[in-house]
Specification:
365 residues; alpha/beta; 11 helices
Amino acid sequence: MAKGFNRKLVLEDGSEFYGFGFGGGEARVCELVFNTSMVGYQEIVSDPSYTDQIVVMTYPLIGNYGTADDDFETKTPTIGGLVVREYNDNPSNFRYTKTLSEILEENHIPGLAGVDTRLLTRSIRDYGSRKVLLCDAATPLGEALALLEATELRRDQVRRVSCKKRWYSRTSNHRFDVVAVDCGIKLNIIRSLNRRGCNVTVVPYDTPAEVIEGMKPDGIFLSNGPGDPEDVGPVIELVRQLRGRHPICGICLGHQLISLAYGAKTYKLKFGHRGGNHPVKNLKTGRIEITSQNHSYAVDAASVAGTGLEVTHVNLLDNTVEGVACRRDRVFSVQYHPESAPGPQDSGYLFDEFLEMMKEAQSHA
């Protein structure tokens, strides 16, 4: 251990990565993943999809523009931790209100700087995402490994991050009423719908179908969120009850839940997709989109056949399913993030497709 290091990351194979702590000082057992985005660390830290995950940032300099009040994706970040090569605690940005370390400390989220993030990322690529412990540098290795072995990763992430009661986000140029099922929704999704003339009612993930029906929505939106989609039974059942009765759109976890509701299967990827540089092909138009992604699970392509869904988008890096649709039921979903915070803007048209679907449903009502 080099002199001055006060925190470390311990992997299940006994590997130790020493560095300097920032943010919260808690010891934390989480799943280790990496993100390849060059900007947007504030949006990443505040994305509920990272609940119980320690994120390694591959871009080497983090913290240099601080954080701004308007850029959060949730009011209370639930990311497990953050690992960076170099942390800058003196931001240069006229918009910044707090440093990244201050935000992490306020929310009891540990950070680790000074780590060889290239080596750590290669380890995740070679051996996959797995449990790690972020703790004090003085913690004996045997004690750390025993804690890792004894700690089971939680499976109730959606229940913990979903809102506890409904809330509203209205716009002045109201055209449609959308009910958004909160599995860990990013605020920029709501902003994207508001900008297009949608009043949005955000409801807890376990809201019964009859309650949503009583709101008389023009469309239903299933959000992104953390964890294994098979653990989110209430939303899977919700889709089964409401499909064909209202237009339904899903993003990320919402995409997986729609696929499961129709009878397709999901599986866990070796190290997931996280970052703003994934090429996705739209099979209908042939257009290639550069997309922003954040997920550990994918829809099994072979299992889609015979479900009533069709595959609409594929990932050109590994041929995973990136979109499905059931035209008959006015249901579609994508694995990536058209609201792209952070990330490219190639996929914003998908919100417009949802609006067209709601408009069509209104004309046939």
